[in-house]
Each structure stands twice: as structure tokens, then as C-alpha cells.
Amino acid sequence: MSSHNNNTARVAAARRVAIFGGTHGNEMSGVTLVNLWTKNSSEIQRKGVETRPFVANPWAVEKCVRYVDTDLNRAFTPENLSAMGGDELPYEVQRAQEINRIFGPKGSSEAYDVIFDLHNTTSNMGCTLILESSKDCFNLQMMHYIKKAIAPASCLVLLNENPDLKYSTSRSVAKHPVGLEVGPQPQGVLRSNIFQAMRVILKHALDFIELFNEGIAFPSCTVEVFRVLERIDYPRDANGNIIAMVHPNLQSLLVVLGL
Predict the structure, then answer these.
(1) What is the reported pLDDT for 31?
(2) Residue ranges of the alpha helices (H) in the chain?
(3) Between these two residues, 196 and 233, which has the higher pLDDT value?
(4) Please, which of 26, 46, 56, 124 could form a disulfide with 184 given CB 3.0 to 4.6 Å?
């Protein structure tokens, strides 16, 4: 499937950019990069752009777990963001509200222009950029730029815009949300090649933003994407226990995303 982009001229400059690591606290490439850039952000700064590295879920990072109470990458629903209760709310709901105050409000003109949300997966899938709208011309051009910049290395694009299958991600606070999933890497482990692949993609993404803000004209392009059509669970018994596994002839071909 291809998604076409014809014009980014009407898209406003991206002046405020955030890079989230640790949305899932045991996905170590993003955690390590954000900690590195928090100490010295010179690598991620670009002319005319304020780039802010940010640990999204510090309690989960401290415990090296995916989340503490509930998945932060599912927590940015209108109900959660408007919920009352303060300290009585699940930790990740409190954190979602705080992130929304800092980088949002979600859906408003005051929201950050771009949020890069960094993830790892145990799947042997290499680098995948996650796009949430086929109509986001800015993100389509960025992804096309990144793919060309790192060629012949591969970087896939996953499009998830089905309203029945989408979920309320931390990056959804921004006008232009970008997910980045890189694997394979076990949870709680840091691999240098996966770390470096993520770092290189962020470099090219920020280079694109700088060029875009300077008024560089990007020609129409076509971006090949993989579209999320449905989610299929494993077969389970009456108690909810998984009772099957992926066939050995298929297991290396299937991509399973924690997102």
C-alpha cells in the first residue's frame, strides 16, 4: 500500500519538538538516549528548533518494568486526561495528565509540534516508524526523507489510523506524533546496534525538521506503508490461558509489536 503526499507548503514550521524515552520503562534504547541527551542536548539541537528530551514514565524506568499501574501508551484518553482524583488515580493516569499539561493540551494549538516516542521490541523487525494519519503530509515527508537518508538500510513505516484499532498514545499529544520501534532487543537490555540505529534515525528526523523550517521545498513523494487491519489474539481456553503458539515455519516471519 502506498500513501501519497502532494504538498507540505501549508504546514506550519515545527519549532517545539520532544523526544520521549521510557514510555515503557524496560525498553532501554529510548531511556538511554533520553538520559544521554538530558545531560548534553547539543546532538539534538537544530537551528530554530527547541528539542526537549523527556523520560515519560520515570517510575517504570526505575523499576525496569513496562508500567507500574496501567500502560502509559494507552492512557491518553479524554476520560483519563479529564479525570479527577489526584493521587488516588493510577500512576500512569497521573503521569498522562502531567505530560498533557507540559506538552499539550492534546488537540490544541498550544501543543508541541512533534513528539518522537522511542520504543523497543523483541521482534526481529529492524527499524519501523509509526504513522497515525495518512493525511499528515509533514510526517509523510519526514519519513520519506529518513528512508532515503539511511538507504540501503531498511526502515519500514506502519500506518495505524483505523479508529477501532487505534489507542491513546503518549505521542498523540503532539500535532505530529511519530513512533519509532526498533528491534530485536530483549526487555531490560541495551544492544549497541539497536541503540545506534535509533540514534541515527533521530538525527535524520531532526535534520529534516531544520530543513523544513528553513523553507526547503520537498517534492511530491510516495511512501510505502504497512497498514494495521486487525488484531488477532492467540487461541485461549475458558480461563484465558494461551493454548497455541506460532508454527516454527512462520515464527521468524511474524512481527509482534508491543507499541
Answers:
(1) 98
(2) 28-39, 58-63, 78-81, 91-103, 137-150, 192-213
(3) 196
(4) 124
The residue type of 161 is E
pTM confidence score: 0.91
Contacts of 51 (CB under 8 A, 6+ apart): 17, 18, 19, 41, 44, 45, 206
With residues binned 3-state (H G I as helix, E B as strand, rest as coil), the percentages for the chain, rounded to 5, are 30, 20, 45
Q: How many CA atoms lie within 13 A of 63 on its CB side?
A: 10
Coil, helix or strand for 124? coil
Nearest to 99, CA basis, from 178, 22, 7 = 22
Q: How would you classify residue 53: left for phi > 0, otherwise alpha for psi between -120 and 50, otherwise beta? A: beta
pLDDT of res. 112: 98
> Which residues are designated catalytic?
181
- 9 pLDDT tier (thresholds 50, 70, 90): low
Q: Compute the distance between CA of residue 17 and CA of residue 72 in angstroms, rounded to an integer.
A: 20
Query: Is 61 in contact with 34 (CB distance < 8 Å)?
Result: no
